[in-house]
Design brief:
Distance between the termini: 55 Å
Strand content: 15-25%
Mean pLDDT: 95
Number of strands: 13
Low-confidence stretches: none
Radius of gyration: 19 Å
Strand order of the largest sheet: 4-5-13-10-11-12
Length: about 375
Amino acid sequence: METSPAFREFACADCEETFEPHEIELRCPACGGLLVARYDHDARTEPTRPPLPLARERLHSLDEGGTPATDCPTLADEIGADRLLLKDEGRNPTGAVTDRGLAVAVSAGAAVGADAVSLPTTGNGGQSAAAYAGRAGVASHSYVPSRCPFVNKAMINVHGGEMNVVEGRYPDALAAYEDSDAERFPVGPSSPYRRAGVKGLGYELLTGPAPSAIVVPTGHGIVLAAIHAAIEELREAGTLDVTPRLYAAQPAGCAPVVDACGTADAVAATEQPDTIVGPLEVPDPAVGSLAVAAVDETGGRGVAVSDSDALQAAVDAAGTAGVELSATGGVALAGARELAAEFDEGTVALVNPVAGSKEDDLLRSHLMSQGI
């Protein structure tokens, strides 16, 4: 694989073994730990542009990224912050933050000559993978739970992807994926390439005056881990003066990362996950340990919110700020409301991972339950 000039190696977060890109796919070949990319920051010519493991000319991009961060003064007043920004990842090509990560992961697969990529997914990742696989000229295979939203299932097929619908929830789809013996390049949530791609979100939020706090709806923990990586890289490059506090927001019915924040305990899987917010119903998060480290090392914390509060927050954002939050994004605003006492000054940024129109049925059902 042709790497970027600044890329040095992949290193295992657990055993510290190092690897070249051609030696790895998902996890450490030695111990199974998560892999993180390391860079030579002296070799970077653009310190405010995120370095990637592979050369940018090998990236099969759909112009993902560059999403708006909309100023919402009414919501800022509500939580007592000087300013509140809603970073709308729903503006990405397939309507989700997953586009950033799958652009890099699928491109890495194509760069090593893979004919197909494969992943387990709650839905949005499968749609992204299919889109970027089509762009790269490779096949994609997604394992999705039966409760995956119809829009994801439909668009996986529209983009030409192969889909395996597995009865049940995400752990069932994961089990089916792991039972498959097909030779395909893995682009699942553990992929270090996915975190490298999502890192651009952090660079966009941190370029210029950085927010004092960032609240992230959390499933696998990819976004939190990626923003934390961006913080560390920008600090090493000497272009970040203030480190934002990172906050993990999860539904109360599935909050393994939140439960582990601020403790010395490993992330424990939620035994009976139950939330209407499908993208965040991840009982055993793939990069949970990195997400917890991101929160703890920046002085943030975890916050769990009810489904009803998340849905109402999304509706309120649309009604008072004009921003179409998804139910998933509503988890961030509901979390910010719970954390209001910590936001007495500075700028708070909330991440909306999914376009509101992809979860409109949840929001409409919430209104109907209120007789609207």
